[in-house]
Amino acid sequence: MNNWVFEVSKRFSRVDRKGRSAATSRLASIGICFGVMSLIVVMSIMNGFQMSFIDSILEISSYHIRAADLNQNEEISLIDLCDSTQDILSVTPFYEAQTLITGSNDKESAGIIRAIDPSVYETDEGFRKEIHMRTGKFNIHEKGSIVLGATLAKNLGVRTGDEVNLLVLSGGSDVDLFSGERRFIVKGTFSCGYTEINSSYCFVNLEDAAEHFGKDAKKNWGIKIKNPYNDVHFCAFFNKVYSGSEAKFQTWRDYNKSFFGALRIEKNMLLFMVALIFVVVAINIYNGMRRLVFERKREIALFSALGATHSKIMSIFVMRGFSIGLTGAGFGLLLGILISLNTKAVFMFAADFMYYSQYFFTLIFNPSALQYVSENSMYLVYANIPARIFVSEVIMIFIFGLVSPLIACMAASRNVLKFTATEVLHNE
Q: Which region, left, alpha or beta, applies to residue 17 given φ > 0 means left and ψ of -120 to 50 means alpha?
């Protein structure tokens, strides 16, 4: 692009800052800024909200890859294969069954009981990170020990040290469906980022599983890899190694397909709704740029008469759109990241602001109702959601904020093709 195009665009921009187009340009930049900022903050909070579910499910419930229907020789080879592969973190055997648990005062609740190696809590860093012990310890080394989800323990009315009974237990043909003899001592209660796990999961050791789950209980293997998003690659690798056998491998995407699909739809719809800000801003930029092009029709005709091509003349106004987009998207990017990194402080400030505002107006207009003024507890819930910033999403939002005014300016500047020196001089 020739230097004269840049100089003319800069000249027009400097003049327009003092003219009627100044408000349009500033409002457009502000609109782009708030659009980029809102998208980054909303997506970061949504990521934190959803990833708290996903992390808990992957590390506690589904693992990254599940293996089932392995014979004894295949189990040994799987352990050796995972130990020798650098990108595989762990491989763990487990049993799982459905149960109806009874607690104190004959309270009962349905649950999922999982039998695991007692050392998992010490050796599996991801598991230990997601399991937050509320009472007691994650200690299932002794026979007859059990660790309950915090909500499940509350529903049963039990605490650490109390006794629970697995009244109903699914299992093989040699397992009694109903029994009053499957008694366990509660060693601790835990919570994680997913309510469903808190309200239904409990853990026992493999020795208890061998005694109570029956000989026909299905043994599964949970495999964790360094990058959970390489699950498809590793699943294909395992299927290739064990091709011809009855072994089955399943990724966390397949195991939780419906749930993760719902989360993806929710995120995409929210992204679409917030992205409408850019559509409104682009329309305003388009209308403002059309007026600017019309106001500059004399200069446009003069440039055309001096031999400037239409593409060069259009570039003058496209650079204006680039300037608007870069300014707005740049400030929006900085504000969005700043707010996302300090969401707790922002929500607590909003909580205080709403409380004192409500208190102030209630004091003026209805002092007798001051006793009913209280802080909104939902702000505390929002403040405890850890925002997560994904670089790829931030870059995409920034580019979208930069491109939308460019497209609007390109569409509006097409009007330059309609002006000729003859028409302009005739109108003058």
A: alpha
